[in-house]
Each structure stands twice: as C-alpha cells, then as structure tokens.
Amino acid sequence: MFRDIERVLIDRDRIAERVGEIADRLAADLRRELAAEGAGEEEHRVVFIPIMTGSIVFVSDLIRRLPMKLSMQLVTVSSYPGETMESKGAHLRGELPAALEGKHIVLVDDILDSGRTLHLVRSLVMERSPASVRTVVLLDKKARREAPIEPDYFGFDIPDEFVVGYGLDYNGYYRNLPDIGTLNPEAAIGSPSGSGGGASG
Description:
Blueprint (H helix, E strand, L loop, with lengths): L4 E6 L1 H25 L9 E7 L3 H8 L7 E2 L2 E4 L12 E3 L10 E9 L3 H11 L5 E9 L12 E5 L22 E4 L18
Parallel strand pairs: 2-3, 2-4, 2-6, 6-7, 7-8
Antiparallel strand pairs: 1-9, 4-5
C-alpha cells in the first residue's frame, strides 16, 4: 500500500509516545493557568484551533489524551497548492473562529517550517483578545524558518526533507500512513529536493 515510501523517519510507536508527553505537559500548563485565574476546568475556556487538513490526525490523537473540558474550532490555511513541494505562502481560507475573547487558545499544526502559516493564524487570533495563545506542532523544521515564530510545544525536530504520513500529504495522498517518512523520487516526479513537508508551513 505504501510502496512509495523510501524510508520511515519516525515510526508510529515513537509518535504515540511523544503525543502523550505533549498532552501531559499541555494539560498541566492549562490547569495551572486556569487555577491561577480562579477558573475551573469545567468552564468553557480552552479552545483548540487545528489548522486543517494536515493536523487532523495529530489533533485527534492529542485531544483524546487531554482529560479536561475543551472545544474545537477549525481553520483552513492553504500553502502548498497543486503538485508541488514548495511553499507558495500562507492564505487563510474562510473565516477565523469567533468568540475567542478571554479564552485559552491552543493552535495545532502538523509541521512548522517557514513559519508563515502559524505566524499568520497566531497574529489573527491575537487580535481577538484571548487570555492566552499556545502553539503546538508535531514536527519542527528549523532549517526553513522565515517568520519570527517558535512553537511552545513540539514533537520532533526533523531535517530539511519533504515528509508524508500521519496527516501530512503529497498531492492529497499518504495522510493515512501511520508513520512519518520520505517519498521515493519516482513518487514525487518533478519535485525539488529539500522542500517543505505536508500541507502547511
């Protein structure tokens, strides 16, 4: 089924373990902040905003490890249109979630490379006067950073290679690969080497 995968960089067991670690730390930080405000976990104060579509698998696993009340509102940002591995810039598609004032926002993305996507969404969310904004990414590709942003929580540092799996795609495929890996050259015809990875940046 996945004969196009050249090699596995991060296997499913390592991913599951790391997602659990991120969830534990995030839950502890959110509880501490809510307690400092005198707010209980039952108050509707924590809002997850996953950046679709690449983060869909990651955020699904992450929120199931969080034993606390939260809501989720989606946002879609396009940055890899068509059959390409080069980022074309971040563009918000549709409306930003409303009613974020006074809430604790958790932005979730699959991969942070150029930083343009997360920087754009974070800037727009900050304009809505939230109580706090945290950023969570599964993969951090520091070599390609262009925007002034670093994640508050991340799963793995990765080299400057295009990766697929666990929600990340190439031309809409490979999101259902449970591991994270690289493509055979034949599967990425015409793609430049050392490009991004997944559907966000």
